[in-house]
Amino acid sequence: MASSKLRSCCSFPNLLLSCLNLVLLILSSTSLAPIILLKLPPTSLGWTFLMLSSISILSSFVGFFSQLTRFCFVTHISLLLASSTGQLLGVLALFTREKLSLSMLKPAGHPKEAKLLVRVQCGILMAMLLMELALLVLDFAVHSCWVREYEGLESEKEAVLRKRRRMARVQGEEIIAIASKVAEPKSNTKDFDEKNLKCSKYGQWVKTDFEG
Question: What DSSP line would sit under 181-197, residue for residue?
């Protein structure tokens, strides 16, 4: 009952977390296309954007298992922080230094097409950044939900164990009391038999002495 309560409490946030990770995976995969279309092989700045997209893809994969173990959770948070920091810098570079970014990317095609691809890349990075910030908040919320529910389960288990120990102690005391009550009549009977035996022996001795 407690486990079903835990699953029902965290099922919707977990489903939302999986959906956001799936959207991030799609966005991260899409962000590879503009850089590849600008120039192949990419320049150093192009490789930087490709690395950021790869980190986002990896974080989205880890995000599907982030609530299984503490290691997965910490890894997912670390990847999200690294990726979101890089994407923030990338958005600032593409948005505020568009011409400089174009010159560093060294596009092979027409300048207008290159400018369009850079703006598309900037928009995708902004969407990825917002998605990763939402994932960070939701990841912490789901993790705190699981921790709170597990602590409640542990306290319930401890309460049940204490109750069982108390019942076992009471039952043991009752068994000892019943055994002592059962043993008491037997000891009284034994004492009574010993007294009768002594009396009979004493009577025989007196009778023998009288006849003698």
Answer: HHHHHHHHHHHHHHHHH
Report DSSP state, residue 39: -
Residue carrying structure tokens 């599907």: 64
Task: Spell out where the chain has E strands.
Answer: none
The span from the CA of 122 to the CA of 92, in Å, is 9
167 burial level (CB within 10 Å; 0-12, 13-18, 19+)? exposed
- CA dist 65 and 74 (Å) reads 11
> What does the angle CA 62 – CA 66 – CA 70 come to, to the nearest 5 degrees?
120
Report CA Rg, the chain: 40
Q: With 0-12 CB in 10 A as exposed, 13-18 as middle and 19+ as buried, what is 87?
A: buried
pLDDT, tens digit, for every residue of 127-140? 999 999 999 988 88
Write down the pTM of the prediction: 0.64
